[in-house]
Amino acid sequence: MSVATHWGSFVAVVDSGRLVRIEPRADDPAPSPIGPGMVRAADDSARVLRPAVRKGWLNGLPRAHDTARGTDAFVEVSWDDAIALVSEELRRVRSQHGDSAVFGGSYGWASAGAFHNAQGQLHRFLALGGGYTDSRNTYSTAALEVVLPHVIGGAPWSYQSRMPMWDEIADNCDLVVAFGGLALKNSQINPGGLARHRTQDLQRKCRAAGVRFVNISPIRSDTAGFLDAEWLPVIPNTDTAAMLGIAHTMLVNDWHDEDFLRRCCVGFDRFASYLTGEFDGVAKDAAWAARITGMGRDTITELARRLSTQRSLIMVNYAIQRADHGEQPIWMSVVLAAMAGSMGRPGCGWGAGYATMDATGVAPGRPSVASIPRVPNPVADFIPVARIADTLLHPGRTIDYDGRRLTLPELRLIYWCGGNPFHHHQDLHRLTRAWQTPDTVVVHEAWWNTTAKFADIVLPVATSLERDDFAAGFSDPHLVAMPKVREPAGESRTDHHIFAALASRLGYEREFTQSRSEIEWVRHLYEQTRAGLGDDGALPSFDDFWRSSTAELPSLSGPFPGSFEALRADPQRFPLATPSGRIEIFSEEINSFGYDDCTGHPAWFEPVEWLRAGLSDRFPLHLISNQPASRLHSQYDNGGHSLKSKIRGREPVTINPLDAASRGIENGMIVRVHNDRGSCLAGAVLSDDVMPGVIQLSTGAWWDPAQPGRSGTLDRHGNPNTLTADRGCSRLSQGPSAHSALVDVEPYDGPLPDVLAFAPPPLEH
User: Any idea where the Molybdopterin oxidoreductase N-terminal domain is (predicted)?
Assistant: First the structure.
């Protein structure tokens, strides 16, 4: 049977209703190993099998500031009782505190599927019930999403169809300079689903065509070995300084593209004055950049020459903008590409997020695919996605965001569905304190992860293996059938089933379901997609699609709105959607906001935490908390593939041998990673893949605090967000700054505690 996930499409082998194994599709050239590991998690002891209510909440303890969240036992109840409790609590909060007191969390990838989209289902349900406070942007790319529309115009994600595809790079480009690298492990995934993995083969095609790659990153393995990339280690959080040093070198040697800068950009003169030091007396030359970045002055100079004399492409990955002043490397990378002479030329110029998912650079887009219909939200309030702890701790406080002043609402009920805030958010001890403040937390979950354990009402949901749907990945031209492989575990129900029951009790079931069953919805959305193509032959009938498991959408062809090639050819006829119609090297709009941490042009701002900060005397290692190879974020950390990657049950942490030797750390040793925010245990992996002064601990290990609910307690499992800082990138985006974190590491010589991340809480009946 066909299985579609964010990490690829597979075939499920089922025997008498029992899931035996999951196998890669024969036509997938680079299948992800995450898929087969799903079998291990399908029936493990962490499954939530029945509705459960936190004992203290059920017994009427004070609901505000009840510090038992995360420590309490749960009482299993019937579905009728659970639906009654949730619906009555929604009524009470709305009537006493208003609709904005309900927070529709649901931030996260949830699972693949056009209909069973957890966020879409939750937001439709809450909007029909009166509205909710929403969140804006993503933890992955908040800084990028806010700054790019100012600089190049268009919707936040429109750059995906405007940058070169891998095929074009292979045919036209000589040099790719990747700030933050091109970690191939990230290309396992595609939001919404994925038919076949193509990024690896496309990268190989580029290398075979003679394209040279430069990896500017603290981690050597951020590019695949077959690319033979030149590794230029850089001190974390200093990419902007490196780019400025390259730009200054181009400027003083007249290597920059004056014609493109004059015709297709605005504000270069003001930026050039900053480069030369006219404004602040500091020339941003190669020697200046070398002192900050740890790169050699001659290396920076030579890179400037190569970029401006070869057909080049500047890439930035998403990780470099999840840091203090994360808007700056994104903005500066566009400026550097504009200066280099290749912007708007085939296969060259600028791009972001290559290899972050198997979509970027693979295909520029696909026709629209129907999904669960959205309902306008009657509540105008929203918060930047990474400011949830601030909102809970400081309701009524005002913050800056993209030229606006936002008042943080008072949230009394959190409804979370399809995400894991105790994975995505930074400084989990601070989040623990914040999480005690609302009256009620309702969570839909398939497993007893940390978010479920920190809830008041937990409703068990079916996994993607236990429901009917079809997948449509971001930019992926394939639709993949997702027939139910097995019956839901225990008393699990789909999100839609749960919301339909709640809507029935609240009086709007017909509006929510439109009188369709779940499989009727799936068929309806497929037929809507088919009709939207305007060609009856573009897609097979639903029944034929369901039997064959895959259908291919027609490809889209450019030019796409905001094309840099069109801009270069004729900026008057093909302006960008910016105030000037051109690339905004200097943004009058951003400058008008008056932010001291994000001015009118890209600039170097010293991070709060980095290896040149005073804090490095106490915490001399920079923590890189990148995406894991063994799972998607925290999804299927209890799956077989992720469990195999652990060291004595802990998440592996990569340490340079020089740093390990000075601390008496040996390969395979359990170590304690710590700073003033917290500490966690991890298994040491010694490798010169990371530069000295840097350690790498991937995100996604289910948080396992030794004393749940107590701030500062040891995490037994290795979640880096025990250590990261919960502060916004800047007043412009308020995005997360996870990669600006200093730590130290030491051998752990105490009794090794058991990992209880996958153990359910105490359950009563």
Answer: 4-39
User: Which of 7, 57, 79, 107 is flagged as catalytic?
Assistant: 107
Separation CA 497–CA 344 (nearest Å)? 49
Q: Where are the beta strands (DSSP E) in 322-437?
A: 349-352, 382-384, 398-401, 404-407, 413-417
The label of the residue with tokens 């057909």 reads 311
**Rounded to an integer, what distance in angstroms lies between the CA atom of residue 203 and that of residue 286?**
31
Catalytic: 107?
A: yes
Q: How far apart are CA 103 and CA 417, in angstroms?
A: 11
Residue of 453, 463, 374 lying closest to 421 (CA atoms): 453
- Catalytic residue selected from 7, 57, 79, 109: 109
> pLDDT tens, 591-632?
999 999 999 999 999 999 999 999 999 999 999 999 999 999
Amino acid 416 reads W
110-151 pLDDT tens trace:
889 999 999 999 999 999 999 999 999 999 999 999 999 999
- 276-311 burial, b at 16+ Cβ within 10 Å, e below that, comes to eeeeeeebbbbebbbebbbbebebbbebbebbbebb
CB contact at 8 A, 329 and 316 = yes
- The span from the CA of 460 to the CA of 453, in Å, is 13
How high is the pLDDT of residue 765? Answer: 87
Q: What is the CA radius of gyration of the chain?
A: 26
* Partners of residue 461 on adjacent β-strands: 493
- Is 231 marked active-site? no
Cα–Cα separations (whole angstroms), residue 725 to 135, 577, 609, 728: 20, 35, 9, 9
